[in-house]
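Summary for the lay section of the report: proteins are chains of building blocks that fold into shapes. Here we show the chain for DUF3347 domain-containing protein and then a coded description of the shape we predicted for it.
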Amino acid sequence: MKKSIIALATVITLLFTANTIQANTVKSESGINEIVDASQLQTVYDAYFTVKDALIKSDSKLTSAKAKDLLIAITAVKMDKLKSNEHTVWMKVVKKLTADAKNISSTTDLKKQRETFKSLSKSTYDLIKVSNPDQPIYKQYCPMADADWLSKEKAVKNPYYGSSMLTCGNVVETIK
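The coded shape description reads as follows.
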């Protein structure tokens, strides 16, 4: 009888442990998928910010190189891994994002890069607006260029004029 109780307790413990391990595995797998989903677009956003930073420096060669990185990030996005609201917006903006990144990467004409950056910023804004970024993103506006851009910092650093008018502009929206 005592052996039967010990055997039964051992079986119950093993079953409980197996269920706990299985539940934790399911939780961690879904966590991994969420990380993949979040990083899908985060890579695009990070590449966008490096293009912006290169424009702030008025470095057309660096801007071109960073736009190539952005293009790689855009093409690496797996649409089936996006949340439905992100997927809907992605389908609307992906062609424009791709075209803008190609245009910026294929020229070292700073004026053309900055002009194309206006459109790139609009498409990126549409996308980031639905994707709940993990940190606040600031939509900023320059009245002289009549254009917006996105920034991780609240302090204005204007990509349309660089050092000639670095602080021209203001925060018009905070995306959380």
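Put simply, here is one thing we learned. Helices lie at 2-56, 60-76, 84-105, 110-130.
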